[in-house]
Amino acid sequence: DSIISVFNMDLDRLCATHELDYSDIGIVYTNYTSSRGVVSLVRNSVNMRCKNTASKIAVCHSVYCASSEWPAVIVLCKVVGSEEDLTTLYIMLSRARVHCSVVMYTEEGET
Fold it and tell me: Which of 93, 15, 3, 71 is nearest to 42 (CA)?
């Protein structure tokens, strides 16, 4: 899946940075992302990286991240096109203190 490929490239880049521990990285996603099965693939990727360390990458639904903050965040967001999406996107983006990557995508067959 190309979404997971882009996500893994971003995560590899962040993990290669020696200034960040895994606990400095947050992955934030929306309902639309979870409905595609992307979250289970993301969790598998995160678990593989963190299995031999106490430092864990946080994986958080956008609804539960409003008071969370990390130095680096990867946002997974399906483009649906409503105003509510913009509010949710802003909340997810604002969880990052220093670095934020955004993986936006449409449903297969949409443009």
Answer: 3
pTM of the model: 0.84
- Taking only the tens place, the pLDDT of each residue in 38-70 is 788 888 888 887 777 777 889 998 888 888 999
Q: SS in 3 state form for the chain?
A: CHHHHHHHHHHHHHHCCCCCCHHHEEEEECHHHHHCCHHHHHHHHHHHHHCCCCCCCEEEEHHHCCCCCEEEEEEEEECCCCHHHHHHHHHHHCCEEEEEEEEEECCCCCC
